[in-house]
Design a protein that fits this description.
Oligomer: single chain
Number of helices: 6
Number of strands: 6
Largest sheet: 4 strands, parallel
Radius of gyration: 19 Å
Distance between the termini: 31 Å
Strand order of the largest sheet: 4-5-3-6
Length: 179
């Protein structure tokens, strides 16, 4: 009798309406870290009930965000600092056509750091292997497109560098920031 939608912005209105026709008494609980404008409008106009959880999980540290122009020194310092504390890094480069160029740039900047590339044009098998290898710390930096926003829980990945972040939408940037 209840439908739980974990990421509302990825679930269409048509799909929800179809489910309501099949089961008119269906209760729907929609969860979203980044409410889409339609959800906000429905909540603010009292057409939809909304609850906000503002307490982070136990031991969760606040997200620190630094916005700056492209700077090799900052990138090198951020990656080096994370590796020094035995952590891992997402480097977001959201253009498949030039992602290998980004990898070469980073390898030149940090020659001793192990890196790999992941994007949606890889086969499912390749992508799973890359993510498993990253999870198992076979490399330190994952240079990826926005596929990382789909949320694998990797507690060792505590730094995200978003190259050319201005090309992301506001909701997408906020979603990725929470990774």
């Amino acid at each position: 009798g209840i439908l739980v939608i974990d990421d509302e912005q990825r679930f269409g209105v048509k799909q929800k309406e179809k489910l309501k026709k099949i089961r008119p008494a269906l209760d729907i609980l929609s969860l979203s870290a980044t409410p889409i404008p339609r959800t906000l409008y429905l909540a603010l106009s009292s057409l939809k009930n909304i609850s906000t959880i503002q307490t982070p999980p136990a031991c969760r540290l606040p997200i620190k965000t630094i916005v700056s122009p492209f700077n090799k020194t900052i990138i090198k310092k951020a990656i080096g600092g994370e590796i020094a504390r035995n952590g891992q890094i997402y480097y977001l480069h959201n253009k498949v056509e030039t992602i290998e160029t980004a990898k070469k740039f980073l390898e030149k900047l940090l020659p001793k750091v192990k890196m790999a590339v992941a994007h949606g044009k890889l086969s499912e098998r390749e992508l799973i292997k890359k993510m498993d290898d990253f999870k198992n710390k076979k490399f330190d930096v994952l240079i990826a497109t926005t596929i990382i926003e789909n949320g694998l829980e990797l507690p060792n990945v505590n730094t995200l560098i978003a190259a050319d972040a201005a090309r992301l939408g506001l909701a997408q940037a906020y979603q990725i920031r929470g990774r």
